[in-house]
Write a structure and sequence with these properties.
The chain has about 800 residues and is of the alpha+beta class. It is about 35% helix and about 10% strand. The protein has 25 helices and 17 strands. α11 crosses α20, α17 runs antiparallel to α25 and α22 crosses α23. One of its GO terms (molecular function) is metal ion binding.
Amino acid sequence: MSNPTIIEGWVTKLDTIASQNYSFKMEFSVPREMGVPGAILVRNDHPNEFLLVSFSLTLDDSREIHYMTNSWVYNTSKTGARIFFQNKAYLPDDTPAPLRDLREKELRLLRGDGSGMREPSDRIFDYDIYNDLGNPDKDHKLERPNLGGNEEYPYPRRCRTGRPPSKTSPEYESLPQPVLGQLEFYVPRDEAFERVKNSDFKADTARSLGHSASTKIGSWTGSITKETSFDSMASIKKLYAPRGADLGGLNNLLPDKEDIPKKYQNPFVFLQEVIKPDGEWNTPFQYPLPGILQADENAWQTNEQFAREFLAGLNPVVISLVKEFPLKSGLDPKEFGDPTSAIAAHHIEGYLEGLSIEQALSEKKLFVADYHDAYLPFVERINAQENSKTYATRALFFLSSDDTLKVLALELVLPPQTPGGAKKSMVFTPPADTSKPDYLWETARAHVANNDIVAHQVFSHWTNCHAVTEPVILATNRHLSKLHPIHHLMAPHLKSTLFINQGARGKLIAAGGTIECTFTPRAYSMRMASAHYKQAWTFNSQALPNDLIARGMAVADPSAKHGIKLVVKDYPYAADGLEIWDAIKSWNAEYVDIYYKDDAAVLNDAELQNWWWEIRNKGHEDKKDSEGWPELNSKSSLVEILTTMQWIPSCQHAAVNFGQYAYAGFMPHHPTMTRRLFPDEGTQEWDAMKKDQEKFYLSTISDVISATRTMSVYEILSSHSPNEIYIGDRDQNWIEDDKVDEAFKRFSAKLADIDELIKSRNSDTSLKNRLGAAKLPYELLRPKSKQGVTAKGIPNSITI
């Protein structure tokens, strides 16, 4: 090592209101035979932390060497000097001898010893169960079961905080003290948002809450809202700015409008974004018009649009091929009764374009969105709660000759009164007259849409993306040194996810959080998430080709472009997704070839094998013995594992997250609450419903408060920040390897080609599912986006 060099002029730099970067020049005198320094050690004797944004060395021969920094450095008197390695990758056995001890030391520090309460200055990554979703110390009604670590409620692991047990229930962890009214859980400081992202996120939140506040005081009508339900469809539409109005920034939904350029070096990003986002003056008291209403404000009500979104919408991962008819449940008939669906032949015969049911099955023409088994075990408990009423539902579709789906029937099911008894099922078929709304049909469809939006948020979005990515982040930091080539590869896909997940634990999925307050299952939402994880989640099933084949939406075909053939040719999510899946897989294969000469090198990589073992046995301890875990024993298996791990936080998350406002920002299209069941025929309630069907419909779907709260959340979650890093992009100097640089350029070029392909598909009028009745193009898997709510763009990681 060289002699230490002090950063001169440090004390002359004064803190400012807004944080900003400072540059310092330093000189190191080293023997020429020392070669290129492989690491720097940084000591901070000051009480305050600083962010080491970057560090580079210019050698005597003018070469510039970069180091992996962008990290907060706290006082190092207890931990010893921080270690920052050169931006160069080495497998463990190839590590230069002087760096090997430092490599091991750094990993030991990041793993910790599993004890103690985490402090803000800690950089320790460890596992724990979800034992902090409830708040029994505040109110026994806020007690919630622990997720993970027990057979009844298995779940992936979260980042350990080590807080003491709660006072009233020692099996639960106590909650941290709120900071400015918000719960903040420990995550290592480097996992937090960067400054521009953080300011932009807070500005988005403030601006969206302005919309919500205006709703609550009824500013658009001049009167305070007194009714909990909307009184008409027109009253809902008054929440939004007129078509074509440009509210700027977060509110700019017009895909062909150019943003006014913005200088990101302005330190007051928060104020700039609230007052004048993207250079446009902000109007905070109206919601922007969601994409679903942009071209035609009534198209959302059509059965065509309802059906299309199961192929090209917010949750296109549920629909599956019908392989037998009648449909059957997989639940225990001794508890849940006859497994046979009430949708019978007479409901659908005559609507199959001349085919018999047997022919429709053999020609793969029948499809179903089936929420029955996921919901039925919870329906009775959900319906016992105040202001929550639901069914276990199914929607049956027929694939028409033009490759679009046609709704055949909807089924709404209540569980039997006694174990094994008769279920109460209702079957609805589309009304013959479509010239005006049929609100009984609309109400039945709302119940199906509500099942779907809950499954979207709790299963497809939170569990399958956010929750399952957290163990990967923990294991990567615990077992793959920053020198490891797979750490270099995976790091962009894991950025800031721990931070957004801890925020969700405090605000969204916790007892009394947004999910419980605004989604029908309320207190049972996360228990349903656990049941989904237990029954449906496997690692292998998260790979796009495997998922499509498992749902019967594709068949293996070695002669096909991607090795599989889609059953529905015009399935936008799958068609676009397979293009990107193959591009990611090809990039990973090139990358792995650069660093691993053969399969033996994969097997002999101790860091890599420990990483994979811990993801399965610690991160998913409750399912470590389940099927679906591939062996990491070859280069090809490593490529498949890496592709799946990158697909989830980038493409899969983009597909289910960034369309939330465009597709669900108009509440009646995807109501998060259903508050009434259909009354029994012959009762006064039945007569009242028949007399005023629209009133009954409006009293069933989300009320004013829950609607505007979820609209505000959707607006925030659907927004891209100004410094977003998208798939195919990397931070400058992310790795110093010419072969990797060339391979990555090929990957980025391939993604650009895919973007052009998606645009051409959306322009192809023969592909009717690309636009649908609402003329809302499917762009959620277009790789890049501008800032704001755009319903497109794939960030590298889950940062929202």
